[in-house]
Predict the 3D structure of the following.
Amino acid sequence: MSIEFTFDIGKFARKLEDASDAVSQGAINGMDDALELWQLEATNLAPIGRYKGRRGGNLRARIEHTTPKLSGNEINGAVVANAFNRGFNYAYYLHNVAGGKGAVARESGTVLDFLAQAKGNKESKMFALIEDAIQAELSRKGLT
């Protein structure tokens, strides 16, 4: 004599797939929040342009972030500062060249390597934003 026991894994598999989708969507949302925070911090740290129309003009207005992109198991995004004028990228010059030549920012509270310092200042908060967004998406989908 035997009695069978059956377990349908289909419902469990669907929940796992839903959880995977929620984690991906939450991570994308969180990355966007993290990039916005990084952009804001970089804008606050960037040197204030004194010569509108010359070189990079208003550098702070030319700092933006990309849309997060999911690629395999990674989500990528960037904060970009491009202040071009007649083929010269003033943002690149300030960030990567001027400091190496001994230049310093003229205004207190600003730095020449504004993108790198902004990321360093806010990196732990950026990770927390991504984690919070994943948790919020899992909760929104009823998976926690």
DSSP finds three helices and six strands in the chain.
